[in-house]
Design goal:
The chain is an alpha/beta fold and about 425 residues long. It has 14 helices and 15 strands. It has helices spanning about 25-30, 35-55, 70-75, 85-90, 130-140, 195-205, 220-225, 250-260, 275-285, 305-310, 310-320, 335-340, 365-380, 395-410, and strands spanning about 5-10, 55-60, 100-105, 115-120, 150, 165-170, 175-185, 215, 235, 240-245, 265-270, 290, 300-305, 325-335, 350-355. The strands form five sheets. A three-stranded mixed beta sheet has the order 2-1-15, covered by helices on one side. The longest helix is centred in the N-terminal third of the chain and has 17 residues, at about 35-55.
């Protein structure tokens, strides 16, 4: 039976605050801070446990091999010889944000009845541009079943940042849906990371029905305000679109297109007068997981604790859930280490609609497996990383040992 599975990125042992992501306000604000990789990974594991307790299916992706010495070699340098900004880019643990791993089209949407995944090229940001090879290797193992079609990246220069700029509306996860690709147009101080040509290429690869596919432009105001991906200002689940007023370039036209293509849609819009764009970005209100609750029914928002700590945001949310709308419950979770680097609960997960029996079970989570992961993290992940530590040969050895221990515990040593 087709159902939604959330695959969270396990936060890697090289998690650090180098401030590499231009346009990501949180990342820039914490550049140079001392990170806590162990605490970060344990926070992510607790989020997965929380979602399992809600009755949701949970999977994971493992950290990539970092620092990426092979990438530095293509630039004619090494860990010892690299300029500090290149060294930091080689150390990046940004693959933790699995929403940027791929774009996923479930089988009911595709012309060949397969679930299609296209790995994101992430070419806009140097520190992420060398993730796709390692991510693709995982996807090809996790989704090796004939029920899936796993594609390589869209070629440069057409930037693609994966599911963070993709939404799906449907009557139920296993029913045919409307796929919405959100792209940006450059020109401001912050780059637009998702190219229209990349989105259209993915739709063609995934054999989507043009009548059930939309391409909507993200608001320039949102991009320049720190919404570097659409999932910072909008998220969809089944028939509900939860969005900020400033999410789309032409709000009225975008809403009209969505309603014409999927008349059952229920748009829950947060007005700027109630929650400013700045508060939405700071709190990551929309970088929440909007989920269907299997036990209690209705929908809930798994959102960062920062949303509760932002008065305008929490006041609006409490009023919303007190009403008769589709979103009935709020579940704050602590992912502060990820948030400080610019990624909330939704950044950490990739949504895949599939029959769980078709997924390699090594990538599916249960409490016992998460116990094993947590034990490896508690034993091997560094407690802290300061900017100057990235030049440490001892730390390189430690993080490689840590990742190897995780892969061994998960029986995924083929990824070493």
């Amino acid at each position: 039976m087709l159902t939604e599975i959330n695959f969270d990125g396990i936060i890697g042992p090289t998690h650090n605050y180098a401030g590499l992501s231009r346009g990501n306000i949180a990342s820039a604000s914490h550049a140079g801070d001392i990170s806590q990789p162990r605490a970060a990974a344990l926070q992510g594991i607790e989020k997965m446990r929380h979602n399992l307790a809600l009755g949701l299916l949970q999977g994971f992706l493992v950290p990539l091999d970092r620092p990426d010495v092979a990438w530095l070699e293509t630039l004619g340098t090494s860990l010892d010889g690299a300029e500090p900004h290149l060294r930091a880019q080689a150390w990046s643990a940004s693959s933790m944000w699995a929403a940027n791993a791929a774009t996923v089209s479930p089988a009911p949407d595709s012309g060949d009845g397969k679930c299609h995944l296209t790995v994101a090229n992430l070419v806009t940001m140097p520190h992420r541009s060398h993730e796709w090879q390692g991510t693709l290797a995982q996807l090809r193992i996790a989704f090796a079943d004939p029920a899936f079609a796993v594609h390589g990246p869209i070629p440069a220069p057409f930037g693609d940042e994966g599911a963070a700029n993709h939404m799906r509306l449907c009557r139920g996860h296993g029913a045919p849906g409307l796929e919405i690709f959100v792209y940006g147009v450059g020109g401001g101080r912050f780059p637009a990371r998702q190219h229209l040509d990349a989105s259209k290429a993915i739709a063609r690869r995934h054999r989507l029905d043009p009548a059930r596919t939309l391409f909507l432009r993200q608001s320039d105001v949102a991009i320049q305000g720190g919404a570097f991906h659409n999932d910072v200002v909008a998220v969809a689940n089944e028939h509900v679109l939860f969005t900020h007023q400033s999410a789309f370039h032409d709000r009225e036209a975008a809403h009209a297109e969505i309603r014409a293509a999927f008349p059952e849609v229920e748009i829950v819009e947060v007005p700027t007068a109630a929650v400013s764009l700045a508060d939405a970005v700071k709190s990551y209100l929309f970088n929440a997981q909007l989920v269907s609750l299997p036990e209690s029914g209705g929908m809930g928002l798994v959102l960062p604790t920062e949303a509760k700590e932002t008065p305008a945001v929490w006041s609006w949310l409490e009023t919303m859930v007190a009403g008769n709308g589709p979103i009935r419950q709020l579940f704050p979770v602590d992912v502060r280490q990820s948030m400080a680097n610019g990624g909330g609960p939704a950044c950490l997960r990739l949504r895949v609609v599939a029959d769980p029996v078709s997924v390699d079970p090594r990538f599916l989570a249960d409490e016992a497996k998460l116990d094993r992961v947590a034990a490896v993290v508690a034993t091997h992940w560094p407690e802290a990383i300061a900017p100057g530590d990235l030049a440490s040969a001892a730390l390189v050895a430690d993080v490689r040992k840590a990742r190897a221990a995780l892969l061994e515990a998960l029986e995924l040593t083929a990824l070493l």
